[in-house]
Amino acid sequence: MTRAAGLADRGAGDALIRHDLALAGIDEDVIEHALAALDAEHARAERIVARRGADAKTARYLAGKGFSQDVVHAVVARAGEDALG
User: Which of 4, 11, 39, 55 is in the most buried spot, having the most CB atoms within 10 Å?
Assistant: First the structure.
């Protein structure tokens, strides 16, 4: 689904994509299929952290873009640990 891919390309997490598609009247099964066709949410979040850095501001950004709390914590914490060596 091109709408889901477009949102993901603009940095949206699964929750934001799911919400947007639901508001557009897309069936839940179609939404889940569209999400499954995207890169994993974790991988998308890692790309954002690589660009923005692993700090609290990026964590808030990811959360605001609909990334799950588990993904935000895991990706930001891992990137921060990698930066420390």
Answer: 4
